[in-house]
Amino acid sequence: MKIIIGAGKTVFDGWISTQENELNLLSRADFERMFSANKPTAMLAEHVWEHMSFEEGAIAAKNCFDFLADGGYLRVAVPDRNFRNEWYQDMVKPGGNGDPTHPSYTHKVVYDYKNLCAVFRQAGFEVELLEWCDEAGEFHFKYWNPDDGRIGRSLRFDTRNSADKLGMVSIILDAKKPGIIRSEK
After folding, report:
1. pTM (2 d.p.)
2. Which of 26, 78, 99, 122 has its CA 20 to 30 A from that of 106?
């Protein structure tokens, strides 16, 4: 089972799209209701964690860890505090650009790669960075397979990016739960 968290209108073959009213990352009861019989092997959360405080993000990461199958993974993407682009930073900051109809209006946190990794390591995950900017603003990319969870706001898939200029990037990481995925009988 593969789950998209906070899917909005995102639909991928083989993945189950969920919304906050179905799977609230802060509600252990939601996880128990959805995953008590069958734990997912993969979860995908594109631009979800920035809508929670650091403390809430830690609770959400722990809930995902506890209900993910052994050997499973959670792919996460969030806005990148280290991306050197004034328009981008104004848009992704807590409260966004002040437009209550824009999704960034409910942003509570802007992560850098270090504090995002810490949230998932603290929950018990092994973390692998896939895309991120370092403290100097330099962008880093490690190949990742979109079949394992496609991130639209990424180097390869966001149309605001070109070979000459980055317009939209995210910190993208895979948080892996140690263990071996067991096949269902």
Report:
1. 0.94
2. 122
